Automatic annotation (TrEMBL):
UniProt cross-references to Gene3D superfamilies, sorted A to Z: Nucleoside Triphosphate Pyrophosphohydrolase (3.90.79.10), Winged helix-like DNA-binding domain superfamily/Winged helix DNA-binding domain (1.10.10.10)
Lineage: superkingdom: Bacteria
InterPro entries given in the database record: NUDIX_hydrolase-like_dom_sf (IPR015797), NUDIX_hydrolase_dom (IPR000086), WH-like_DNA-bd_sf (IPR036388), WH_DNA-bd_sf (IPR036390), WHD_NrtR (IPR054105)
PANTHER family in the cross-refs: ADP-RIBOSE PYROPHOSPHATASE, SLR1690 PROTEIN
Descriptive protein name: Nudix-related transcriptional regulator NrtR
Domain (Nudix hydrolase) ranges: 9-139
Length: 234
């Protein structure tokens, strides 16, 4: 096989954009120690085993490489091929979006760290593009689904939820308006519990919970409007 020819078989790999929202939106990256792109940061992932489902491979690498098991939502983002540069094998790379609740505390390896998506370090292999795609996918789904459940603990206040929306969307969000919309749509409901006001005083904050802890489309027409510009090629 010549240097310019493709290998007989492509190697399937998965990489995961792991996001959490703790006042700001953060992505989980690990630092490479070897070439190519030594010292750059990369998405967790790896090769897919023979006959292994892609989602199974993604969860295996998340647990085995970066210690993440509390994935509340996992979905495919994109699949692309990479043409064996510098003698590397021909890869078919499937990117996953993995969402982790804010109260999850995985035991991360020393070479792994959370980074603000608005202030990323040097990122390897074009993975910064995948992180941007993941953020845009998440922001779009916030407008027509209950996907924020995957970023929240079981119980939360409206202010905490609004901070998560703001971290993803990059703009201020009114807790009162957000709560009104999501309760009206049946996405979440008050639990009857209250959060202590603490030293700041004031009224105790009402606690809420999502009605479902799996993805539900709450506004189908909003989903269509989100997709329409891409479909129209605008």
């Amino acid at each position: 096989m010549t240097a310019d020819s493709r290998p007989d078989r492509a190697a399937p790999v998965v990489n995961c954009v792991v996001l959490r929202a703790v006042g700001r939106l953060e992505a989980l990256l690990w630092q490479r120690r070897k070439a190519p792109q030594a010292d750059a940061w990369a998405l967790p992932g790896g090769f897919v085993g023979m006959g292994e489902p892609l989602e199974t491979a993604a969860r295996r690498h998340l647990l085995g490489k970066v210690g993440v098991r509390d994935v509340a939502h996992l979905e495919q983002l994109n699949t692309s091929s990479d043409g064996g540069r510098d003698g590397a094998p021909w890869l078919i790379d499937t990117i996953y979006l993995a969402l982790v609740p804010s109260d999850a505390e995985p035991e991360l390896p020393p070479d792994t760290r959370w980074h603000p998506v608005d202030d990323l370090p040097q990122v390897a292999f074009g993975h910064a593009t995948a992180i941007d795609l993941a953020r845009r996918r998440l922001a779009g789904k916030l407008s027509y689904s209950n996907i924020a459940f995957a970023l929240m603990p079981p119980r939360f206040t409206l202010r905490e939820l609004a901070e998560v929306y703001a971290g993803v969307l990059g703009t201020r969000v009114s807790p009162t308006h957000l709560g009104r919309v999501l309760t009206r749509d049946g996405v979440m409901a008050p639990t009857g519990g209250h959060r202590s006001a603490g030293r700041s005083g004031g009224r105790p904050a009402e606690e809420y919970a999502f009605q479902e802890r799996e993805l539900v489309i709450s506004r189908p027409l909003a989903a269509f409007r989100t997709l329409a510009p891409a479909v129209a090629g605008r």
